[in-house]
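Listing S7. Sequence submitted for prediction.
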Amino acid sequence: MRIDLHTHSTASDGTDTPTELVRNAVAEGLDVVALTDHDTVGGHAEARAALPEGLTLVTGAELSCRLDGISLHMLAYLFDPDEPELARERELVRDDRVPRARAMVGKLRELGVPLTWEQVARIAGDGAVGRPHVATAMVELGVVDSVSDAFTSEWLADGGRAYVEKHELDPFDAIRLVKAAGGVTVFAHPLAVKRAVCLPESAIGKLAEAGLDGVEVDHMEHDAPTRARLRGLAADLGLLTTGSSDYHGSRKTCRLGEYTTDPEIYGEIVRRATGAFPVPGAGG
């Protein structure tokens, strides 16, 4: 089995619609794909309706969190999307995205970048607007060569000149809320040092004590020594280890299924979940 547990669609900051995503997953030879858009489950219904035969959909979301001033992302799998407290927190994060993006546009204009809110809104479409949409607009203007080039201290990285904070969950609250909704939590790309400052290993240990289920190890932003370090840490803490593409369509260079999760780990995630179940494709 080929299993990719971290992908994005146009419901957040990917460039594939949910329909295109599941069809492309089959074309890439995947057996299981998780749709984990940022702070939203808005793409799940379309993905279910379009799900091709032979592909299983894992519903999820990537939750925006912050601890001790450090931004991090928590992958949540197979939770009940209607659980009210978790749904309310996701809504708070989403509601803060538009004023935050507008503020980033304002900062960029002050820095001499001729960016407009209309341009960012066009790129975001119906998705949950975020920094990748602002970065894409910067690429269109020729300010940077790629989306990743915008995520530096000069521009949009945490603490960067055009960075603006948004409402984010405390990760301990995120773990509690996802568990209460019957879901499973995996710390996304925990040592992706190119993005910003990472949490110390001691903090990951505290998250494990609070009920964190796993860490994403095999990821495009983790080199071989980092993966080895994370595997050792996970073994010490009793955490599951996953692998995923973090696919965003044409917005990033990674391919669907570029990194995958061991079937036994996937089976354990499914066994732990009580809020929702994987959806087998019936030829959508």
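Caption to Listing S7: primary sequence and predicted structure tokens for the chain studied. The beta strands are 3-7, 32-35, 56-67, 70-77, 184-187, 214-218, 240-243, 279-280. Residues 82 and 265 are 26 Å apart (CA to CA).
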